[in-house]
Write a structure and sequence with these properties.
There is one protein chain. The protein has helices spanning about 25-30, 50-60, 80-95, 110-120, 135-140, 180-195, 195-210, 215-235, 250-260, 265-285, 290-300, 315-325, 355-365; strands at about 5-10, 15-20, 40-45, 65-70, 100-105, 125-130, 145-150, 155-160, 165-170, 310, 335-345, 345-350, 365-370. The chain has about 375 residues and is of the alpha/beta class. The protein binds nicotinamide-adenine-dinucleotide and zinc ion. Zinc ion (ZN) binds next to helix 10.
Length: about 375
């Protein structure tokens, strides 16, 4: 398979994303094009380091780097200040200097924590992303946002820090669970809805092959998503405006994740529901065609994503969800802002939604558990 490339033109922070099969064995070579021989640390988690750590280390060592590895326990709760401090200690022990670099070998949790460590250690050192989940390949590894969580909330401490390279290897996705794959597909579908009707139709046609991890089609999917995210983030690197469209489905998605304490709905599942609710709101407020909502719902369902919430107390759940949207980070003075669609491929950000309409719309999605 040819290696596909997506370039992000960001002046002296420009970088290239490499997408293909069997990219991991090339990591040493690809790093040498932009980073001189030095000490480097591979950061992975308790799943990704045992799976891919050796291959990564061998390639880097052969390219002349002095490599050590550091393991984070797998899971979102690891993305915290305590582990960040442990990583800093390890970087000092490993004698990392200003020109040394980090490799993030894992999903978004590893990418965000490693990226933030790289952004801050010695006021900033280079890092390379090797995203190992579909979600991190199409989303978190592109755009330069890095962060850790505080007890008070997700991603509350962070920095913008662009990687030197991003290497997306389709082979690494074969060990992902079905749930993780679906979670990534939720963000993939989002790109179609917000930016590219042609890509959305292509996904409708090729979803079965993507679910069975066809490498060629998966690489094409990752390439298109990276291109779309790259276009939006290079235009608005620090999210002062249009980058907000990437939050389609996320205002309600975050409220759902929070309400269930991040352990019933994964991020992608919550965002799937958030996207559907946003489509229905868009019908009422922007004339989004009903038929398009059906297409979005079908694609999400076929991706094995949930399209309803079941609860034993419907009114209370709806109230809590509405309150959740009012606490969203992007909320101004208690008025939650939504990204809404005019049609597939065309969205507006900063839309206000009357609370009564939100309540009425949520009634369709929040259902009583059958006794
Ligand atoms: N920086 C950004 O712009 C941005 C954007 C979106 C999400 N995020 C962040 O990304 C995180 C979510 O990322 P995620 O969904 O990749 O989660 P994750 O990193 O927790 O990975 C999910 C699970 O899959 C395992 N795993 C990873 N790769 C695997 C592989 N190839 N085979 C088998 N198991 C594998 C991990 O160990 C983990 O248990 C969140 O913290 C979120 O805040 C950041
Ligand atoms: Zn998301």
């Amino acid at each position: 398979m040819n290696i596909k490339k997506v370039h992000l033109p960001l002046a002296d922070r420009s970088y290239t994303i490499f997408i293909g099969s069997e990219i991991l064995p090339l990591v040493g070579e690809l790093c040498r094009e932009v980073l001189p021989p030095q000490n480097c640390v591979i950061v992975g988690d308790s799943n990704t380091l045992p799976l891919f750590g050796e291959k990564c280390k061998t390639s880097l060592t052969q390219a002349g780097y002095n490599v050590s590895s550091w393991e984070l326990p797998a899971g979102e709760t690891s993305k915290n200040l305590t582990n960040l401090a442990r990583l800093y200690d390890f970087l000092v022990e490993s004698r990392l200097e200003r020109k040394s670099f980090l490799i993030a070998l894992g999903g978004g949790v590893v990418g965000d924590l490693t990226g933030f460590a790289a952004a801050t250690y010695m006021r900033g050192i280079p890092f390379v992303q090797i995203p190992t989940t579909l979600l991190s390949q199409v989303d978190s590894s592109v755009g330069g946002k890095t962060a850790v969580n505080l007890p008070g909330g997700k991603n509350l401490v962070g920095a913008f820090h662009q990687p030197k390279r991003v290497l997306c290897d389709m082979k690494l996705l074969s060990s992902l669970s079905q749930k993780e794959l679906s979670c990534g597909l939720s963000e993939v579908i989002k790109y179609g809805v917000i930016l590219d009707a042609g890509f959305f139709a292509w996904l409708e046609e090729h979803l079965p092959e993507l679910l069975s991890l066809d490498t060629e089609l998966m690489a094409e999917t990752v390439r298109r998503c990276c291109e779309l995210k790259a276009a939006v983030t290079t235009e608005d690197e620090r999210e002062s405006g249009r980058r907000a469209i990437l939050n389609f489905g996320h205002t309600l998605g975050h409220a759902i994740e929070q309400l269930y304490q991040y352990n019933t709905f994964s991020h992608g599942e919550a965002v799937a529901l958030g996207q559907l609710v946003a489509c229905r709101l868009s019908e009422s407020l922007l004339g989004f065609p009903r038929e398009e909502t059906r297409r979005v719902a079908n694609l999400l369902k076929s991706s094995k994503l949930p399209v309803t919430i079941h609860t034993d107390n419907v009114p209370a759940t709806i109230d809590q969800l509405i309150q959740g949207t009012q606490r969203d980070k992007k909320t101004l003075a208690g008025d939650p802002k939504f990204v809404l669609a005019e049609q597939v491929g065309k969205v507006n950000f900063g839309c206000s939604v009357p609370q009564e309409l939100l309540r009425e719309t949520l009634r369709e999605f929040v259902q009583k558990i059958e006794e």
